[in-house]
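Dear Dr. L.,

I hope this message finds you well. Following up on our conversation about the binding site, I have prepared a predicted three-dimensional model of the protein together with nicotinamide-adenine-dinucleotide. For your records, I am including the exact sequence and ligand specification that went into the calculation, followed by the structure tokens. Please feel free to forward this to your student if that is useful.
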Amino acid sequence: MIESGTDSMRINLERKVDESYDIVFGRDLFPRIAKDLKESPLASRYVIIADSNVFKTHSQSLLRALRSEELKVDDIFFNAGENSKTMQTCSKIMDDMARLGCGRDTAILALGGGVTGDMAGFIAAIFNRGIPYVQIPTTVLAQADSSVGGKTAVDTQYGKNLVGAFKQPERVYIDVDTLKTLPDREYRSGLAETIKHGVIQDADFFEYLYEFVDEIINKKSPESSLKIAVNNCRIKGRVVEMDPHEKGRRRILNYGHTIGHAIEKLSLRAFETGESPDYLRHGEVVAIGMTVAAKIAELLNLLSVNAVMDQEKLLRDFGLPVKIPGEFSNEEIIASTKADKKAAKGKARYVLPAAIGAMHDFGGTYATEVDNEVVDQALKETR
Ligand SMILES: NC(=O)c1ccc[n+]([C@@H]2O[C@H](COP(=O)([O-])OP(=O)(O)OC[C@H]3O[C@@H](n4cnc5c(N)ncnc54)[C@H](O)[C@@H]3O)[C@@H](O)[C@H]2O)c1
Ligand SMILES: [Zn+2]
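The resulting structure of the complex is given below.
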């Protein structure tokens, strides 16, 4: 007879996993993707997930490339836009996959911007308890940011990215030719995270952006797109390798995101309720958020005025907003920061620069609470 509570058993599940993957950079990569999948298959069938815009511009040619290698492939699309990044859309896509007969031996090809990457990656994490996926990012933002780090998520009515998982892709293909069809506003918006990477980690890259604004913005040359993509992945990759689970240093990637997410949420809500005809893009709110964070750092004597001005000039030159939209009050924005999932005990934390290319470490936490009065002042000075 076993006395209650005296017996225990350990289920030993310690494991070491290697989740490393390759990022391939180049032009006209769809045939290469198909060839790679033919030569080293990830599954017995594939499903392309894209939003309604990318479905029109790129899905068919990826589908054709895979079929010409005699791979079994289907495609599914959802309505474009951040407000599609929800559990409901995921459920619908997973039902479609089930209806098509997709099971465990399916791999997802996430073709599109950050919304598609986040959602398709999340589906890959949970469909049949996890299936492989490949990222094929088609926006500057997704090529800059969502291809490294393995974060996948959907939004809920209580906040952005509140439900998600870490799920690393098997491979990432960054085809800069896909950017040709990207609307100008999305192109510029994506460059905000690029500028962020310069500010948080790499003054030389920041300098390059400063010097080649025209080449990047007006000419949109494939060479500069490639250089940008490679540098973005290198910078983000290095930060993520040092801190894969965001215990400390990786927080620097959240630079500009405390205020950015707060405004993004307000802007999306205004769009959903019909108060506003459009919503601010992720990169746009990050640009505003970086401007406010730099101002906070300046007010706390943690950053020079020159650095604040250099950052603002570059953001402006790239056609990004650097002012708080008039329709949102400081009170609303501050309240919205506290609902962010990164707010510890209901207090928002800020990641602050020390100079162009370096962040404050705040004793290894890389983030700090800031008094409401200082945030309020910084917001006032950013109007
Ligand atoms: N996982 C991460 O680490 C990470 C990092 C940063 C941002 N994100 C997320 O990424 C999302 C924003 O990503 P985004 O800015 O790429 O938005 P998005 O995916 O909505 O794409 C922007 C717009 O561009 C269109 N589009 C995309 N590629 C196109 C192309 N090549 N040609 C024509 N149109 C194209 C889309 O249909 C959409 O209308 C946010 O939800 C954000 O939270 C995730
Ligand atoms: Zn971001």
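In brief: The chain has a mean pLDDT of 94.

With kind regards,
A. P.
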